[in-house]
Automatic annotation (TrEMBL):
<keyword id="KW-0049">Antioxidant</keyword>
<dbReference type="Pfam" id="PF00081">
    <property type="entry name" value="Sod_Fe_N"/>
</dbReference>
<dbReference type="GO" id="GO:0005739">
    <property type="term" value="C:mitochondrion"/>
</dbReference>
<dbReference type="InterPro" id="IPR019832">
    <property type="entry name" value="Mn/Fe_SOD_C"/>
</dbReference>
<feature type="binding site">
    <location>
        <position position="188"/>
    </location>
    <ligand>
        <name>Mn(2+)</name>
    </ligand>
</feature>
<dbReference type="InterPro" id="IPR001189">
    <property type="entry name" value="Mn/Fe_SOD"/>
</dbReference>
<dbReference type="GO" id="GO:0004784">
    <property type="term" value="F:superoxide dismutase activity"/>
</dbReference>
<keyword id="KW-0560">Oxidoreductase</keyword>
<feature type="binding site">
    <location>
        <position position="184"/>
    </location>
    <ligand>
        <name>Mn(2+)</name>
    </ligand>
</feature>
<dbReference type="GO" id="GO:0030145">
    <property type="term" value="F:manganese ion binding"/>
</dbReference>
<feature type="binding site">
    <location>
        <position position="49"/>
    </location>
    <ligand>
        <name>Mn(2+)</name>
    </ligand>
</feature>
<dbReference type="InterPro" id="IPR019833">
    <property type="entry name" value="Mn/Fe_SOD_BS"/>
</dbReference>
<dbReference type="InterPro" id="IPR036324">
    <property type="entry name" value="Mn/Fe_SOD_N_sf"/>
</dbReference>
<dbReference type="Pfam" id="PF02777">
    <property type="entry name" value="Sod_Fe_C"/>
</dbReference>
<protein>
    <recommendedName>
        <fullName>Superoxide dismutase</fullName>
        <ecNumber>1.15.1.1</ecNumber>
    </recommendedName>
</protein>
<dbReference type="InterPro" id="IPR019831">
    <property type="entry name" value="Mn/Fe_SOD_N"/>
</dbReference>
<keyword id="KW-0479">Metal-binding</keyword>
C-alpha cells in the first residue's frame, strides 16, 4: 500500500513537472544593420555574434525543450532525464535572454550611441560611484576580472532602488534586480576584431551603448 502511494506521488510530480511554455522561441530582430556599430564593433563581428552564436542558443533551446516534452513516461528514469535536460535549458535560455538584452543595449554612434543622458539614472550612478567616468572604469574592471566566459551587469535593486554592478558566469542570468545594462565578456563577442585585446573592446563598446534604453529600464 505504501509503495503504491509513493508511486502515485511520483507520477503526479512528474506529470506536473512543467516550468515553461511549450512554444517556439525566436531570434529577435536587430534594430540596426550589421555595419552600423562600426568602427567600434565591426559588421563581421556583429553578424557572427548575432546570426551564428545567438541563433544557435535559440535553435538549441527549442530542440532541448522539445526533448523535454517528449519525456512523457511517468517513471523515475523519465524524471531524471527531465532534470538533466533542465541544465541544458538553463544554459540555452540564459544565452537567449542575455543576448536579447545585450542587443537592446547597443545603438549606432551616429544615432546617439554612447551619448550620456542626464537624468535620474545618471544621478543614481553618481550616488554610487561619484561620476559616470568612475562608474565606467569600475564596470570595465569587473568585466576584465571575469575568468573564462561571462557577463557584467548594471542592476537596479527592486527594494532599495539603488544600483550595483554584478557579474554572472557563462550564460547565467541576473535573478535579483532589474537589468539596466549588460555587456558580453564571452570571447565570441570581440575576438575576430580585437583578438586577445579584450580591454580595448570593453573601452570601445561605450561608444555605442544605448543610454536611452538604459534610462527607460531604470525609470520603469
Amino acid at each position: 500500500m505504501l509503495k503504491s502511494f509513493k508511486d502515485l506521488v511520483l507520477k503526479k510530480t512528474i506529470k506536473n513537472f512543467r516550468f515553461f511554455s511549450h512554444s517556439k522561441y525566436v531570434l529577435p530582430n536587430l534594430s540596426f544593420d550589421y555595419q552600423a556599430l562600426e568602427p567600434y564593433l565591426s559588421g563581421d563581428l556583429i553578424e557572427l555574434h548575432y546570426n551564428q552564436h545567438h541563433r544557435a542558443y535559440v535553435t538549441n533551446l527549442n530542440k532541448t525543450v522539445e526533448k523535454y516534452y517528449e519525456e512523457n513516461e511517468s517513471s523515475l528514469d523519465s524524471f531524471i532525464n527531465r532534470l538533466n535536460l533542465l541544465t541544458s535549458i538553463k544554459f540555452f535560455a540564459g544565452g537567449h535572454i542575455n543576448h536579447s538584452l545585450y542587443w537592446e543595449n547597443l545603438l549606432p554612434n551616429k544615432q546617439g550611441g554612447g551619448q550620456i543622458i542626464n537624468g535620474p539614472l545618471v544621478e543614481a550612478i553618481k550616488k554610487e560611484w561619484k561620476s559616470v567616468d568612475e562608474f565606467i572604469r569600475i564596470f570595465n574592471m569587473q568585466l576584465a576580472g571575469i575568468q573564462g566566459s561571462g557577463w557584467a551587469w548594471l542592476v537596479k535593486s527592486p527594494f532599495s532602488q539603488r544600483l550595483s554592478i554584478q557579474t554572472t558566469m557563462n550564460q547565467d542570468v541576473v535573478t535579483q534586480g532589474k537589468v539596466i545594462l549588460g555587456i558580453d565578456a564571452w570571447e565570441h563577442s570581440y575576438y575576430i576584431q580585437y583578438l586577445n585585446n579584450k580591454t580595448k573592446y570593453f573601452e570601445n563598446i561605450w561608444n555605442v551603448v544605448n543610454w536611452k534604453v538604459m534610462n527607460q529600464r531604470f525609470e520603469q
